[in-house]
Amino acid sequence: MDDYVLVNGKKLRKGYTTGSCAAAASKAAVMMLVSGAVPQSVCIRLPSGELLELAVGDAALRDGEAVCSVVKDGGDDPDVTTGLKIFATARLMGESGINIKAGEGIGRVTLPGLKAEVGGPAINPVPMHMIVNAVREAAGEGRGAEIVLSVPGGEEIAKSTYNPRLGIVGGISILGTTGIVVPVSEDAWREALAAELNVLSARGIKNPVYAFGNYGQHFGVDKLGLREDNIIKIGNFVGFMLDRAIECKAHSVLIIGHMGKLVKVSAGIFNTHSRTADARMEILAGYAALEGASCGVVSQIYGCGTTEAAMAIIASEGLNGVFRRVVSNASERCMQYTFNKIRVGTVLFDGCGTLLEMDSNARDMLDKLGRGYE
User: Fold this and answer.
1) How high is the mean pLDDT of the chain?
2) Which of 93, 172, 248, 262 would disulfide-bridge 154, Cβ 3.0–4.6 Å?
3) Tell me: the pLDDT tens digits for 44-95?
4) Which region holds residue 7: left if phi is over 0, alpha if psi is between -120 and 50, else beta?
5) Where are the alpha helices (DSSP H) in the chain?
6) Are 254 and 345 a contacting pair, CB within 8 Å?
């Protein structure tokens, strides 16, 4: 599709979701059964009310069934499902109901907490609504249809998505809240994180662990003995995920991170992306001053280009109280953010994977889990 969005000054092409592809393929297959003609493209209506035209391929009629496919195109978004063919096999039924089934390469939900039912296909409500409406429009009054969706290669591709962590097995999910893929969409990322937390909550996990990325997750598993599937990689979305923890009625949250992220949280910055806020050196210099560092040392820290360089100065000057301030302030700020509805503990590690400091809340949480951290 020829629609674009500006991201950090760069023009990026939008794409369309697996839900849009499934709706278009389903509509095309039913149109073939009704008219006998092979459509080259079909128009579907997006949740916004806009129309989206998508090309149709692999059309075939056989034994009262019609098959069509639509190729997933995520635009300039780094989407692993781009290039997959979403197939729909349609059969008309005498009654007016619409029955949507999952075939090869479509995931199946095995854990509660998601928007789709346990045991059913991993098709979210919005795309399901789009598919049903598209089929109903093509079938006309008084006709029902059965649609079997399939994605060759979907099971293998799904291994590179969030699905394994969400308990979705056997293939990809049919997703999309708008029908359109916006490149580098934070909304899509946040939605996936919220779903992951919902699954943990449905499993009875009320003490989730948040890490900013892979390093934090590995530290939690390798050094703290935590279960990998209880750790959510939250990226920059600290505030958002604290809000979601409140919604899930979590009792506590353990945050594991390195200095570059945690020092921001310790000063009340709840989106840690550099374009949102930085001030890392200002915060560290301030903490060093509070710990009694000389003006010269404070200036050195303030002038550092990386937190690793600043940490080296802090360590060489014996200013370990800075690390204690980072973890205790981070926990306190997060608890204030949640209006003290959730207890928060913080663990700080360095670039070599060495534990630098944890606050008393974190120590207590790990003690209750029976995990080692020495």
Assistant:
1) 94
2) 172
3) 999 999 999 999 999 999 999 999 999 999 999 888 999 999 999 999 997 7
4) beta
5) 18-35, 125-139, 154-157, 163-166, 186-202, 214-222, 238-247, 259-265, 280-290, 295-302, 307-316, 321-337, 360-369
6) yes
Answer whether 175's CB lies under 8 Å from 18's CB: yes
Q: How many residues does the chain have?
A: 374
Q: How far, in Å, CA of 279 to CA of 263, rounded? A: 9
Burial of 316 (0-12, 13-18, 19+ CB in 10 A): exposed
Exposure b/e, 206-241, CB count within 10 A at least 16 = b: ebbbbbbeebbbbbbbebbebeeebbbbbbbbbbbb
Q: What are the beta bridge partners of residue 16?
A: 180
- What is the rounded CA–CA span in Å between residue 188 and residue 77? 11
What is the DSSP track for 294-342?
Answer: -HHHHHHHHT-SSHHHHHHHHHHTT-THHHHHHHHHHHHHHHHHTTTSS
Q: Are 349 and 258 a contacting pair, CB within 8 Å?
A: yes
CB atoms within 10 A of CB 309: 14
Please list the residue range(s) of the chain that carry CATH number 3.30.2110.10: 4-181
Closest CA to 51 of 73, 75, 20, 22: 20
Tell the CATH topology of 4-181: CbiD-like (3.30.2110)
Kindly report the backbone phi and psi dihedral angles of residue 141, in degrees, each rounded to the nearest multiple of 5, phi listed first.
Answer: -65, 140
Pick from 21, 32, 25, 22: nearest CA to 92: 32
pTM over 0.85: no
307-351 confidence digits (pLDDT tens): 989 999 999 999 999 999 999 999 999 999 999 999 999 999 998
What are φ and ψ of residue 355, in 5° steps?
A: -65, 125
Q: Residue 17 carries which side chain, given as an amino acid letter? A: T
Across the range 198-221, mean pLDDT stands at: 95
Quote the CA–CA distance of 151 and 86 in Å, as a whole number: 5
Residue type, 219: F
- Cβ burial, residue 63 (10 Å; 0-12/13-18/19+): exposed
Name, in order, each residue with C-beta under 8 angstroms of 264's C-beta and a sequence gap of 6 or more.
272, 277, 278, 279, 280, 283
